[in-house]
């Protein structure tokens, strides 16, 4: 037989599988475009459900970063005995730097302390009346581990006079941060279940409207996976759009809050800047939202199709 008269080769199973996936994806977009209001409401509800825990999680992450930037909160001020001279203060500072639980040690002389006190308090005349410098040597110790244990060790030094370390507020703040993080996870679970229900209900209504078409496909021998595939793509599209909108909303909120928060941080001597979601985090959020929509659509579509088959039999 001449090559020009050769029969056309049947498409492979892989090509047919790929074509049906493309058709299912395009069909799901067409169903969303055919009902813009219903699709918009579904996407909007999902976007709000995703934005709330994501916003709380981002807030907790920025708070932890801000607390980490304020290194002075962990510093321990070790005031030495008045009779400790400069040589002994230098030796003690070197001994502390060699400890494994100490990150850094700064030695401040009495003259440096007096200058700082004059600049901060405005009591120049009162300090002039005193005459001699009453301040001792000061070691500013930055802990590398447990600052509470290090503070107790510093108090036990024979050269130590006063050890100032107020970590109670930091412990309370850490507790609030842990509570906020746990609350973000709880909200994520609850609102994630809500998003599943929203997508599931939308898919269920779509299946009910196409019941006759689905019944014909089942009678022709179509598998549940073949029938369910367009609805899975529909749920995935809902999730991806909702995740993208949630990120856009949170980005706009972050941009609006960044200038006043930066000004507030500068008043505390910090260069803290509010950070949003990076490219990797945004991709994970969108992919997770799409997976959430796929899961909701798959659960409802599978259950509905099984009920349809059992009713017909």
UniProtKB/TrEMBL annotation:
Q: What is its main location?
A: membrane
This chain's function reads: Part of the ABC transporter FtsEX involved in cellular division.
Q: What is this protein called?
A: Cell division protein FtsX
According to the UniProt record, one GO cellular component term is: plasma membrane
Q: Could you confirm whether the keyword Cell cycle appears in this record?
A: yes
> What keywords is this UniProt entry annotated with?
Cell cycle, Cell division, Cell inner membrane, Cell membrane, Membrane, Transmembrane, Transmembrane helix
Pfam families linked: FtsX, FtsX_ECD
Q: Residues in domain FtsX extracellular?
A: 75-158
UniProt source species: Marilutibacter penaei
Q: How does it sit in the membrane?
A: Multi-pass membrane protein
Report any one BP term from Gene Ontology.
Answer: cell division
User: From what superkingdom does this record's organism come?
Assistant: Bacteria
Looking at the record, the residues that make up the ABC3 transporter permease C-terminal domain are 186-298
Describe its partners and assembly state. Forms a membrane-associated complex with FtsE.
**Transmembrane residues, as ranges?**
37-58, 183-203, 231-257, 277-301
Q: Where in the cell is it found?
A: Cell inner membrane
What family does the database annotate?
A: Belongs to the ABC-4 integral membrane protein family. FtsX subfamily.
